[in-house]
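User: Is it possible to get a 3D structure for a protein together with its bound compound? The compound here is magnesium ion. I've pasted both below.
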Amino acid sequence: MSAIRAERVSKTYPGSTDRSVDEMSLTVEEGDFLCLLGPSGCGKSTTLRMIAGLELPSEGRIEVAQRTVDDVARGVHVPAERRGLGFVFQNYALWPHMNVRENIDFGLSMQRMPGNERRERIEHALETLAIAPYAERYPGELSGGQQQRVAIARTLAARPSVMLLDEPLSNLDARLRLEMRAEFQRIHRETGTTMVFVTHDQWEAMTLATRIVVMNEGRVQQVGSPLEIYQEPANRFVAEFMGNPPLNVIGRSDEESAAEALGAWPGAQTVGVRPEALRFGGEPEPGAFKLAVRIEALSPTGGSWIIEAAAGACRLIGTASVAPQLRAGEQVVCWATNRDVLQFDSRGDRIEERLVAA
Ligand SMILES: Nc1ncnc2c1ncn2[C@@H]1O[C@H](COP(=O)(O)OP(=O)(O)OP(=O)(O)O)[C@@H](O)[C@H]1O
Ligand SMILES: [Mg+2]
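Assistant: Yes, that's possible. Here is the predicted structure of the complex:
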């Protein structure tokens, strides 16, 4: 059953002519760990705030637990506190006059929970988020990352069936981020809580999500599992947004040798090859994409190697898990097996069929 459904929801902020969210349709199933992923300004927070009931849609309909909570055409708007959702937003809004413990307790006392259960939940949340030492402090006496953890603790303690999280880990250092990420995974696994998690970090989305929604300029670009999004991107935007180092894109007009290399893909305006799929030297497979390149640089990154190559103005980046037997300045054939070539048309949409080149 769906936990959340949005139907053609748009948002135009007062005084603006552009749609910050443009005809977004989306279904979040119960138990999903859904990540909204996209670059800064693409409408992730606006989408989440509309689901939460903190922002009015300009058009469209939203359901939470099969109940209509927004319907612009019918003038329906259910306020945030009556949607039964838990949320952690970018500006965490802790109560300034309550200490950490009281902030966490606030939602629980509203639920009229017995005192011993409240205390148990508060202690568990304080421990989980490693904020027990600050339990008696006020928000103004905490760092940004500590405040962020209090906001998460407060939401966790209330145990809502749906949690909306807007970049909840953005202010934490690398280690704490890793720990908190594991904590969200654990909560999801053990409680089945439906999570809608906003991030602009593709790695975070890949490792956490059961499904990813990629957005750009207010529009949904693709919805799919992390591997679908990575391996079967719907268009160039998704293909280039996912992956680090990014996808190599080779255009017909880039370079004479590139046009030749694309000869076997007559329908494609550009092709894309992931860095890990590029090979340098050796014998290309029949039907492979191939391009004569000059090795520009080889750099170790610790666990792997980065290979930079060029064919005229066309730059390519490859990765290798073992030290490559190459020298800077060397001329080699760079190639990729036909299965690893993504084809895009002139609008940037992916051509689904991966033709076997002659
Ligand atoms: N209150 C507001 N009034 C007017 N425009 C707004 C308002 N809030 C957001 N916007 C605009 O709407 C667009 C989407 O903003 P939003 O905050 O949803 O992006 P985001 O994807 O969450 O970005 P980020 O990753 O930077 O948090 C942006 O162009 C932003 O400038
Ligand atoms: Mg945001």
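Residues 89 and 323 are 44 Å apart (CA to CA). The longest strand covers residues 289-300.
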